[in-house]
Amino acid sequence: MCVMAQVGETGGLTVVKTTCSDAEIATRSQRLADWWTAEGSKFVILFIYYAINVFLATWNGIKYKNAGANTWVQIARAGGLTLDFNCALIVLPMCRKLLGWMRATWLVQIIPFDSSIELHKLIAYNILLGSIIHTVGHFGNYASLPESFSFYLFQTNAGLTGFLIWVVIAIMYVGASERIRRGDTR
Ligand code: HEM
Q1: Is 159 in the pocket of ligand 1 (CB under 6 A)?
Q2: Residue 29: which domain range?
């Protein structure tokens, strides 16, 4: 048990000293370690994940700005690089063998492997967000160019494949939704 005792006064403030038994300290550090394994590591990993996304978007946006691209292209490229990153990352949290192998190492102390499906879903939401930013950027750019909008969208390789990726995204995200997986098609 921890005991609090008044040990003096400075500048009108009471100075209190808390003394804990070794057992209590051990329980507290165990609780801190448990909290870290369950929650704390998630915060750190999320922070690093979002920091990388913000860095990539900013870096690519500035790169294209310096190259003389208009604001729409800068937006499209900012979103585009986060797509590169997130699309490469999304399968990792679902690689069972890899996770099983990593669980057997010291990494188990800092990575919340039990939340890997949540991470997979989070990355999926960010791919959706990146796709929206990327597409809005390209659409804005297409609208500012001399040819018609449909020319750029359907008669250029990048426009057409971008459109097709949206069709694939629609099928994948609807198919992955809770209701469809449960077979509830009402
Ligand atoms: C109709 C919507 C879309 C349009 C018009 C479009 C257009 C473009 C264009 C013009 C480029 C540049 C190609 C080059 O450098 O020659 C590009 C690159 C790229 N697009 Fe799209 N895109 C669309 C949707 C998407 C979606 C939904 C995704 C992924 C989920 C995607 C992923 C990428 C990636 C990863 C790149 C390379 C990175 C970059 O340079 O920004 N695009 N897209």
Answers
A1: yes
A2: 2-145
Per residue in 109-132, pLDDT tens?
A: 888 888 899 999 999 999 999 999
Ligand 1 atom 25 nearest Cα:
162
Residues 110 and 158 placed together within one structural domain of the fold: no
Helix extents (H) in 36-115: 41-66, 71-89, 96-103
Mean pLDDT of the chain: 91
Residues of the chain with pLDDT under 70: 1, 37, 185-186
Atom of ligand 1 minimally distant from the CA of 77:
41
- Between CA 75 and CA 136 the distance in angstroms is 8
Best residue among 126, 128, 138, 161 to mutate for probing ligand 1, ranked by most atoms within 8 Å of CB: 138
169 and 87 assigned to the same domain: no
How do the residues of the chain divide into helix, strand and coil, expressed in percent and rounded to 5?
75, 10, 15
Shared domain check, 110 and 64: yes
